[in-house]
Amino acid sequence: MSYFLRRLAFYVFTAWAALTINFFIPRLIPGDPVSALVNGMRGQIDPAQIQSLTVLFGLDKKQSMWEQYTSYLAQLARGDLGISFGNFPLPVSEVLTQALPWTLLLIGVTTVLSFLLGTLLGVFAGWWRGSWIDGLLPATTFLSSIPYFWLGLIAVALFTGVGSFLPASGGYEPGLVPGWSGEFIDSALRHSLLPAATIIVASVGGWLLAMRNMMVTVTAEDYITVAHAKGLSERRVMMNYAARNALLPSVSGFGMALGLVVGGTFLVEYVFSYPGIGLQMLDAIAKHDYPLIQGIFLVVTLAVLAANFLADLAYMALDPRTRKEG
Amino acid sequence: MAITGVGITTPNVAPADPAQTATRRRHGLHRLLVNGKVTSGLVMLGVLTLIAVFGQALAPFDPSKRSSDILQSPSLKHWFGTTHIGQDIFSQVLVGTRSVMFVGFTAGLVATIIGVVIGVTSGYLSGSAAEGLSAISNVFIVIPALPLIIIITNVVPNSGDWTIALVIGFTSWAWGARLLRAQTLSLRRRDFVEAARATGESTWRIIGFEILPNLTAIIASSFIGTVMFAVATEIALAFVGISGISEWNWGEILFWAQGQQALPQGAWWWFVPVGLCIALLGTALSLVNFGIDEFVNPRLRASGQSTVKASDGSRVRMKVGFTPVLADPSRSKEIGI
Amino acid sequence: MTVTTEVVLAAEGLTKHFPVRKRGRELLSRTNHVVHAVDDVDLVLRRGWVTALVGESGSGKSTVARLLAQLYPRTSGDIRLHGESAAVSTARGGRRFREYSRKVQMIFQDPFASLNPVHTVRYHLTRALRIHGRAGKGKQELHSALAELLGRVQLTPAESYLDKYPHELSGGQRQRVAIARALAADPEALLADEPVSMLDVSIRLGVLNLLRNLKERLNLAILYITHDIASARYFADDTLVMYAGRMVEGGDSETVTQHPAHPYTRLLVDSAPDPDRITGSAQGLVQEEGVGEPPSLITPPDGCRFHPRCPFVMDKCRTALPPRFDVGDTETHWAACWLFEEAKA
């Protein structure tokens, strides 16, 4: 229980830290470009929107830093993230709501799949030292050294083109209306295959290696020998004894690795013009769309924290030592 | 990250031999270098460093110079082909190596130094200061690095190689810090630290001379991991168009390739060689990392043969923790098997 | 035998309580739990004498050694070096600690763990000499100081040991290096925390003899901590017995080991194989009665801490902590047990 509470407290603290970092960043921009943009748009946006932008970026020089900070927090609590300059006149929250599901789906599915695949292969690689699986190691390491986005570019070059099955870009066929229709879902799936495959191929190596190293260390422990001596089947010892214990560091590292995956996914979205948050952010940077940039950073960080928390819960379920009271 | 459970090697105890000379001192380092992985990795890194230093002189053409050889595929004149305005891609790669290596290693250095200071201090000292440092490191680990770096580099004016390197260094130290903190915590309880205290060593000497030397392998591994991350990040930044990085950073080459629609035009030579170079650097770093891992944890060394032939011709599969016992058919009747 | 030799180190009422970290629901409660590692320990170390401190794991004997070495600050009680009280803050380090450590040095149980695996023997000894200002000036003086140190612990020729790493030495050699390191400070008191427990049995005698030799030549006061009461008889002049953080018996070694008074000491002696007593205990201590485990030190039992396991337990033992009572005729043998409470004549 105390483990759970400590982790919860930590995430609350980190979320607060993220909010505060988010608060300070735009105030570091020299030359105050935001004021200029806002003034340029003054005729077109209503006073409420101007007010929300003022709070977000500290445009009102008469307020003290602390007052700005408290108004900022209050505004966030209402869910108001300002207006997007690039997607004018959409509010930032709406832009995010459109883009977020695509990214969540892509990252969610690919991360879980590459974790499962990599860890499973790692179990076999560690258990059967010297078998052909060890040959996979240099290959996957090599693949992991290649940036995600480059793999994406190659994939586009190799597998797409006129008349091929896999589309080169986008989230779905342009012209289709997003909805739950079979045609749309089919198109969406096809469009996500290549990006997903890119991410999986690039990240599987890391999990494989980590799991293999842990398996090697665990296999040499005495309790494995005892399990063999008891007469248990090899598969049982490998899975229920060795893998179960070797899994723990990978699970606890899962949350941390997620940060890296998020970064890589952004780049993949860019390459494939996949309509997720990553693409939005890179677009926003090009267009100096400060409210959107801020909003994306916040949402992404909070999402990563939430995922970390879930990973910690999974760890709690797997490692009985964390449940010990006192 | 291929950081494994690290322990100090516990080799077998050899009886003292008066004939041994003082060259034994380098025994450990020597063993590390003999490891094939480390050597090949270091050789590759060495080659790349030379290119980084002498790239400009080695390049056959001025990378920015236009020419009339537009979008040519690789030939003897242009080893990597040319761009849409006739620039030689091979020269671009050579010249850009400097930026890539510089930013990568500088960021790695900055991050490792910060990580060592914060990690070891928060591990050795106890109290609220240490807990605070630990909390800060955890915060930095969890916040996704790439979005943060993108934002900061965009916000800071006049970014050059140094700025990018510093920004990356200041956002990626936390992983190493946490690792070092955990190791320091476990080392702190070891008898030799208490013995050093009992001898009268001061706290700073204990941290610097007793604890740190035992952490060199982890620090090296963490440094390399951070360099890998820094290289990937700076190339990604250049690729998406964050300005300010030196001319012809490999990511910038890819940026132009993407912008000029190299793919649909079939100009594969514009980005394939670059990617392979990136992979080469990454692989070199990984090899050195593996070598260090195996040095520290001898169990990870390649097991060599996994199936051996016994003298009577039967094949036995070797498994960790097992001593295979073969029944001797000629004696089986005696024993009653 | 009553010999008045100079007292080097004395402890009086030495107590150490370690705070226990609160977990979970306990965070809300006000009571702070502590581990009563050491309670009210008195001991005296004299020049040229070996005092043994005997007890099982968890009895607090190692903690006593670390308190005497000022590695932890004591909770209460007094530690006197040559009659002068050492302040509690000595344990925090600094000049006062260094001056203290010049006189009082410690040897640890695990010879491999007490030497830093990345440093050579030369480094360990040179540091020890330098800190205490005995490294001399220049390479020649340093070298002879090192050679002399190694000579004292019988590791000769010095050249063949100086550049070795700990993993290249055998267990006995490492422990000798540890002893040499302690001697570098030219101490007056040596606290040996189970110095031979982790050595092969055949080597133990050699190291113990070395310690005895050093004691005589350098007139050291040695505190010998062990769980093996038989070796205390062989090696030590005085023996003190500890249980669950408290002292339960004391006296000269021969008497304590041959005629143990306290039921716990009797238990220890009976469980140590001793060729002199093959035929079994004449005092009729029933073997089955001695089973059990040491108590929790966070909530130690009331009264005498041994009462849950004691075959001779009386009602008084459960509630009242027994003070020290003299045993027999000698004035030096005492036991903290209600069995020995007699009306003074």
From TrEMBL, chain A:
<feature type="transmembrane region" description="Helical">
    <location>
        <begin position="188"/>
        <end position="210"/>
    </location>
</feature>
<keyword id="KW-1133">Transmembrane helix</keyword>
<dbReference type="GO" id="GO:0055085">
    <property type="term" value="P:transmembrane transport"/>
</dbReference>
<keyword id="KW-0812">Transmembrane</keyword>
<feature type="transmembrane region" description="Helical">
    <location>
        <begin position="292"/>
        <end position="318"/>
    </location>
</feature>
<protein>
    <submittedName>
        <fullName>Peptide ABC transporter permease</fullName>
    </submittedName>
</protein>
<dbReference type="Pfam" id="PF00528">
    <property type="entry name" value="BPD_transp_1"/>
</dbReference>
<dbReference type="InterPro" id="IPR035906">
    <property type="entry name" value="MetI-like_sf"/>
</dbReference>
<feature type="transmembrane region" description="Helical">
    <location>
        <begin position="9"/>
        <end position="29"/>
    </location>
</feature>
<comment type="similarity">
    <text>Belongs to the binding-protein-dependent transport system permease family.</text>
</comment>
<dbReference type="GO" id="GO:0005886">
    <property type="term" value="C:plasma membrane"/>
</dbReference>
<keyword id="KW-0813">Transport</keyword>
<feature type="transmembrane region" description="Helical">
    <location>
        <begin position="99"/>
        <end position="127"/>
    </location>
</feature>
<feature type="transmembrane region" description="Helical">
    <location>
        <begin position="148"/>
        <end position="168"/>
    </location>
</feature>
<keyword id="KW-0472">Membrane</keyword>
UniProtKB/TrEMBL annotation, chain B:
<dbReference type="InterPro" id="IPR050366">
    <property type="entry name" value="BP-dependent_transpt_permease"/>
</dbReference>
<feature type="transmembrane region" description="Helical">
    <location>
        <begin position="133"/>
        <end position="156"/>
    </location>
</feature>
<keyword id="KW-1003">Cell membrane</keyword>
<feature type="transmembrane region" description="Helical">
    <location>
        <begin position="215"/>
        <end position="242"/>
    </location>
</feature>
<dbReference type="InterPro" id="IPR035906">
    <property type="entry name" value="MetI-like_sf"/>
</dbReference>
<keyword id="KW-0472">Membrane</keyword>
<feature type="transmembrane region" description="Helical">
    <location>
        <begin position="162"/>
        <end position="180"/>
    </location>
</feature>
<keyword id="KW-1133">Transmembrane helix</keyword>
<feature type="transmembrane region" description="Helical">
    <location>
        <begin position="268"/>
        <end position="292"/>
    </location>
</feature>
<dbReference type="GO" id="GO:0005886">
    <property type="term" value="C:plasma membrane"/>
</dbReference>
<dbReference type="GO" id="GO:0071916">
    <property type="term" value="F:dipeptide transmembrane transporter activity"/>
</dbReference>
<keyword id="KW-0812">Transmembrane</keyword>
<protein>
    <submittedName>
        <fullName>Peptide ABC transporter permease</fullName>
    </submittedName>
</protein>
<feature type="transmembrane region" description="Helical">
    <location>
        <begin position="34"/>
        <end position="59"/>
    </location>
</feature>
<dbReference type="InterPro" id="IPR000515">
    <property type="entry name" value="MetI-like"/>
</dbReference>
Automatic annotation (TrEMBL), chain C:
<dbReference type="InterPro" id="IPR003439">
    <property type="entry name" value="ABC_transporter-like_ATP-bd"/>
</dbReference>
<dbReference type="GO" id="GO:0016887">
    <property type="term" value="F:ATP hydrolysis activity"/>
</dbReference>
<feature type="domain" description="ABC transporter">
    <location>
        <begin position="22"/>
        <end position="269"/>
    </location>
</feature>
<dbReference type="GO" id="GO:0005524">
    <property type="term" value="F:ATP binding"/>
</dbReference>
<keyword id="KW-0067">ATP-binding</keyword>
<dbReference type="InterPro" id="IPR027417">
    <property type="entry name" value="P-loop_NTPase"/>
</dbReference>
<keyword id="KW-0547">Nucleotide-binding</keyword>
<dbReference type="InterPro" id="IPR050319">
    <property type="entry name" value="ABC_transp_ATP-bind"/>
</dbReference>
<keyword id="KW-0813">Transport</keyword>
<dbReference type="Pfam" id="PF00005">
    <property type="entry name" value="ABC_tran"/>
</dbReference>
<dbReference type="GO" id="GO:0055085">
    <property type="term" value="P:transmembrane transport"/>
</dbReference>
<dbReference type="InterPro" id="IPR017871">
    <property type="entry name" value="ABC_transporter-like_CS"/>
</dbReference>
<protein>
    <submittedName>
        <fullName>Dipeptide/oligopeptide/nickel ABC transporter ATP-binding protein</fullName>
    </submittedName>
</protein>
<dbReference type="InterPro" id="IPR013563">
    <property type="entry name" value="Oligopep_ABC_C"/>
</dbReference>
<dbReference type="Pfam" id="PF08352">
    <property type="entry name" value="oligo_HPY"/>
</dbReference>
